[in-house]
Amino acid sequence: MNEGADDGGGGGGAEGAARSLGCGRGGDGFVPSALGTREHWDAVYKRELQTFQEYGDTGEIWFGEESMTRLIRWMQKHKIPLDASVLDIGTGNGVFLVELAKFGFSDVTGIDYSPSAIQLSGSIIEKEGLSNIKLKVEDFLNPSTKLFGFHICIDKGTFDAISLNPDNAVEKRKQYVKSLSRVLKVKGFFLITSCNWTKEELLDEFSEGFELFEELPTPKFSFGGRSGNSVAALVFQKT
Ligand SMILES: C[S@@+](CC[C@H](N)C(=O)[O-])C[C@H]1O[C@@H](n2cnc3c(N)ncnc32)[C@H](O)[C@@H]1O
Asked: What residues does the Methyltransferase domain cover (predicted)?
């Protein structure tokens, strides 16, 4: 398990993050990439599943351990009831689901469009001896009718990945917002952590049907006399 990286990627430091999710894009916008495709993620998690089976290593935690603590701390501060329904969108290895369940959340669901990711999550959850976490292979851009009514939706790096899709990412981002509106309850919270989008850009992307509830502090970097945040972590509320 990688620790400590809170710089936009899973354990690989700032440089790894930039390579991994196209973080730190320039003014030209996104360069479409394989990182936005199901094939890429399925291959990643197939490899990570093998590593987990051989060595017990759970693999990358996007934005590091601190990103999970930050979200759980926020839920604690706002007294989110432990029986609130929580959806992790694009759960990857499902490690955040494990953290939520260990904290005491009893209605936790993870979805991912990569079957290997869901298989890996299932193996990790089983090894942890947790039985009440729900897992589903779902494409969030085309969610099943069963996926609805969540109090909390979480996204760590999934909107970033979708933004890199080589096939009409603009449309896919719009579809993401529609899906989010469908699955989240009115007044429900959406917690997003991103390294590809600034706070202002995220406000714009989620301006329809969502309002900013809180910005969560993330580490600042400074370089060449300029400073800023490499990761944005925002909480939106569905209006
Ligand atoms: C950068 S990884 C982040 C994984 C995890 N959230 C974490 O924090 O470790 C992006 C994840 O989003 C998933 N993903 C991308 N597009 C998706 C979609 N349309 N529907 C469901 N999952 C998707 C990928 O398979 C991958 O697991």
From this structure: 84-214
